[in-house]
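Budget justification aside, the reviewers requested a transparent look at the raw inputs and outputs of the sequence design task funded under Objective 1. We therefore reproduce one unedited record. The lines immediately below are the structure tokens for a 939-residue chain.
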């Protein structure tokens, strides 16, 4: 690292906390990765908390002549968010929002996830205009800086068209709020020269009719190639020009500190249809007709694209029988009323009466069918990714043709696929705008493959930009990927105009160098990301980052994407014989990658190719915990004794707390962890008392209520743990559960030898597969007998245990966790007296994976007037026993919790006993099973 970077680190050390400045080699590699197929490793990664820190950092970089790059979510595909200098990332403190004018406008900080913005607007029946496919992950900073659009957005509702103002930080540290008159007046005085130069640029465009015509033509299409030159034709005020140049500038002109959007209506009624035509020409002609009807989206898919998803579950049968000439249109219409929607659908189909539709799924609003139809479209990119050869990457290109040339453009692209041997390539896209995505696989491990890709991209550029005067980047941004072709698309005059814009805003050339403006004609072929084989569990990873928002360790250590990046590098070092480098990386990866992974599997729910990074981590833990295998086997064989020992430990801790007090116990626990290098468990004031409720095994006994039976398996945590000292209801969960089931008039069946039963999760989470399987099988046998071969429902009172049992058992049994039991079995026999109260509700990661979010919320709202489900918490991070062994994971995951607890809230509820310990500790209010709440209001 050169002296100026060392100076920068020293300077920043006086401005930022140490954890905000990341210089460790492994972390720089992990944090520097984005969704593109380019790799640059930053020398410094910064996690900034606020606008003042951004200003100080860019001023320091300017003083030392050090380049820097801004990064939001890292989901961009064109290489615009990677850096080999300073990478500036945003902490979770950039998630503020403000709704105005009854939802007509919303101001958002750049760290807000797009889907969260729409969630805030949902009560108003509004949403933001941009709707990129990555909206559940990508952030507002990237959405605005890339002018991202999507399936329904088109050009009318993108960021450029719907921006109502922004706060921008320029390279000299000046802050301009374009919605504030005082800020604008001050800027006009301080930056008169810049504004004058922008006015001069506009004048130059206005006096060059050919250039002006070209600009206006280019933006009739979707276009994110280069800078938003339409700002020079659409606006006269140089501040308006500046504001709109920032949109789509990919962090090369300034930093968007917040943006105000004019929102668009979110219609409550929607219907979708899948229409298949015999060829791409007929589908394209139909698209032109559909553009005159009330459609909100028309997605085109060629025959190969349809073939790629034919074997997926739930697909219409006819897809498998379509030939490769066929082309499909997925059509959506939206309306304010149901009757209006029906009328629109009729009109749309009537407009196509002259066309032969060879197969179809007619317009429907039925949720399951609609989800299946859109799963076809959304499944195409991962379908190619899932079957690619190990070591290759998936590339998704993004072009736009004039709609009149759409069919010819598709045919020419298909010819290029054949010419350059991309036989797996598929085409789909937003047909109304002529915006097509094509997906193919590419290896970069041989020069011949790099040459093939380079020649292919040259041909694509000539085809799209020269032959059809289209857009080389319609919505994914220029980045490094298309920077060498910007001049080809825009011509010399247009490119020179962009160069002048870059120099005006960034005279030192420090802002994201190499992106959009790049003099290297081969820039798109340099710094290509290696994708070495690592493990078949994760080799399909495309490093898109969709997993990151739901990962509980993402702010503490690594996200799933980052774990895979480091593990790939680790395996590469082993194979290449770099034992020193491998050993150094292993020492970092052990804590960052293995120890702090909660292994919840939530990442698999978001991953487009279904990767569960937790499975890899549990596999790696097998080696770590191998020396404990004899102990694990003994505890599995003597589980009742083990739980008695746990009870003894809880009793000792409770007595010590009574004797020493909370303050001394905390001090002793912290000291013990320091002395033992964190190998002793963390003591918490919320540690529960011993469960002294006696369970009576009733399997096989005579029923009191005939056939109304529930088999009840208390989890091992519920059997051992009672309640924390400040819980108002001190009854153990087992007692409360028995009370509630009895109120509903059901007999409770307790399995034989219940204290010896366990689902196996404590072993499985540590990679101890043999005892995990042993306990799971033992439990399955016991529940099969207790339920009389699956005749009666089985309650497992902790959602993680219920989920594992459902997934592990081979025999069909109706296993439910607390919410499922109440809603589907007990509630018809109970009367709930709803209380006027505000409570917190934590939806566990296992409940989310079982699809129980809505059910949990429904049940809680049936019991009390106000239910708060805190945002940004997908998993509590307790992760079995990690709340004791690695408490910082639990703390990081629940960091947003306490601030979301209303002043009038006194308690919270969930459905996992161990999770409730950490929730209570970090929220400041006691958490209990939701069964306590139901039992309290049930009559």
């Amino acid at each position: 690292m050169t002296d100026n970077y060392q100076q920068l680190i020293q300077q920043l050390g006086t401005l930022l906390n140490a954890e905000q400045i990341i210089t460790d080699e492994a972390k720089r590699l992990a944090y520097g990765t984005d969704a593109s197929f380019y790799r640059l490793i930053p020398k410094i990664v910064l996690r900034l908390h606020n606008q003042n820190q951004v200003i100080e950092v860019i001023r320091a970089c300017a003083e030392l002549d050090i380049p820097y790059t801004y990064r939001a979510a890292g989901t961009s595909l064109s290489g615009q968010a990677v850096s080999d200098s300073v990478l500036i990332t945003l902490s979770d403190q950039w998630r503020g929002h403000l709704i105005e004018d009854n939802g007509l406008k919303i101001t958002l900080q750049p760290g807000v996830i797009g889907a969260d913005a729409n969630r805030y607007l949902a009560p108003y029946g509004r949403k933001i205009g941009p709707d990129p496919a990555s909206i559940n992950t990508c952030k507002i900073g990237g959405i605005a800086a890339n002018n991202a659009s999507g399936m329904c957005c088109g050009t009318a509702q993108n960021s450029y068209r719907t921006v109502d103002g922004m706060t921008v930080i320029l390279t000299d540290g000046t802050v301009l709020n374009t919605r504030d008159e005082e800020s604008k007046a001050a800027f006009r005085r301080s930056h008169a020269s810049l504004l004058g130069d922008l006015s001069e640029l506009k004048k130059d465009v206005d006096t060059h009719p050919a250039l002006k015509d070209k600009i206006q033509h280019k933006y009739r299409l979707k276009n994110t190639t280069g800078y938003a030159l339409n700002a020079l034709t659409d606006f006269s005020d140089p501040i308006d020009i500046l504001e709109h140049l920032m949109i789509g500038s990919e962090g090369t002109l300034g930093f968007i500190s917040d943006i105000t959007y004019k929102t668009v209506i979110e219609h409550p009624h929607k219907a979708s249809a899948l229409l298949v035509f015999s060829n791409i020409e007929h589908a394209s002609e139909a698209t032109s007709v559909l553009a005159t009807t009330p459609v909100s989206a028309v997605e085109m898919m060629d025959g190969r694209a349809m073939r790629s998803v034919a074997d997926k579950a739930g697909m219409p049968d006819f897809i498998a029988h379509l030939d490769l000439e066929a082309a499909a249109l997925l059509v959506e219409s939206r309306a304010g009323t149901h009757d209006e929607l029906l009328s629109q659908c009729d009109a749309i189909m009537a407009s196509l009466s002259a066309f032969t539709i060879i197969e179809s799924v007619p317009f429907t609003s039925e949720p399951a069918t609609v989800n299946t139809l859109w799963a076809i479209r959304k499944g195409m990119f991962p379908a190619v990714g899932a079957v690619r050869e190990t070591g290759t990457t998936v590339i998704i290109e993004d072009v736009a043709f004039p709609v009149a040339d759409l069919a010819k453009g598709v045919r020419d692209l298909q010819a290029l696929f054949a010419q350059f041997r991309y036989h797996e390539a598929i085409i789909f896209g937003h047909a109304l705008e002529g915006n097509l995505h094509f997906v193919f696989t590419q290896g970069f491990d041989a020069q011949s493959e790099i040459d093939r890709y380079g020649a292919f991209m040259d041909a694509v550029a000539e085809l799209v930009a020269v032959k059809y005067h289209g857009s080389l980047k319609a919505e994914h941004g220029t980045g490094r990927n298309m920077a060498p072709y910007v001049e080809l698309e825009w011509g010399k005059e247009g490119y020179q105009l962009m160069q002048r814009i870059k120099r005006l805003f960034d005279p030192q050339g420090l802002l994201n160098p190499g992106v959009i403006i790049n003099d290297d004609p081969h820039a798109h072929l340099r710094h290509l990301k290696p994708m070495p084989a690592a493990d078949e569990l994760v080799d399909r990873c495309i490093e898109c980052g969709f997993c990151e928002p739901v990962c509980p360790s993402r702010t503490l250590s690594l996200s799933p994407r980052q774990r895979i990046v480091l593990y790939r590098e680790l395996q590469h070092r082993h194979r290449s014989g770099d034992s020193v480098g491998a050993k150094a990386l292993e020492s970092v990866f052990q804590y960052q990658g293995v120890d702090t992974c909660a292994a919840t599997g939530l990442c698999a729910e978001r991953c487009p190719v279904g990767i569960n990074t937790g499975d890899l981590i549990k596999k790696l833990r097998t080696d770590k915990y191998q020396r404990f295998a004899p102990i694990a086997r003994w505890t599995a064989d003597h589980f009742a004794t083990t739980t008695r020992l746990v009870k003894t430990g809880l009793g000792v801790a409770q007595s010590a707390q009574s004797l020493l007090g909370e303050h001394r116990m905390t001090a002793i626990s912290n000291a013990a962890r320091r002395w033992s290098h964190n190998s002793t468990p963390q003591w918490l004031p919320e540690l529960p008392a011993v469960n002294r409720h006696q369970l009576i095994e009733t399997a096989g006994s005579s029923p009191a209520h005939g056939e109304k039976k529930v088999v009840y398996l208390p989890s091992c945590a519920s059997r051992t743990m009672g309640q924390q000292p400040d819980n108002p209801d001190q009854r153990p969960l087992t007692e409360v559960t028995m009370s509630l089931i009895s109120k509903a008039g059901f007999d409770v069946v307790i399995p034989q030898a219940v204290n010896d039963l366990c689902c196996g999760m404590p072993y499985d989470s540590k990679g101890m597969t043999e005892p995990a399987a042993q306990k799971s099988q033992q439990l399955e046998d016991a529940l099969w007998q207790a339920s009389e071969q699956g005749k009666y429902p089985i309650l497992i009172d902790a959602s993680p245990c219920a989920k594992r049992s459902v997934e592990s058992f081979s025999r069909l049994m109706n296993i439910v966790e607390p919410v499922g039991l109440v809603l589907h079995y007990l509630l018809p026999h109970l009367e709930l007296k709803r209380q006027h109260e505000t409570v917190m509700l934590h939806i566990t990661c296992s409940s989310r994976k079982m699809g129980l979010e809505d059910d949990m919320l429904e049940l809680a709202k049936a019991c009390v007037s106000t239910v708060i489900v805190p945002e940004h918490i997908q998993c509590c991070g307790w992760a079995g026993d990690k709340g004791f062994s690695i408490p910082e994971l639990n703390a990081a995951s629940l960091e947003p919790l306490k601030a979301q607890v209303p002043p009038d809230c006194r308690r919270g509820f969930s459905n996992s006993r161990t999770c409730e310990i950490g929730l209570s500790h970090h929220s400041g209010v006691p958490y209990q099973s939701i069964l306590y709440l139901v039992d309290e209001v049930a009559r």
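The mean pLDDT is 95. The first strand starts at residue 21 and ends at 22. Computational costs for records of this kind are itemized in the attached budget.
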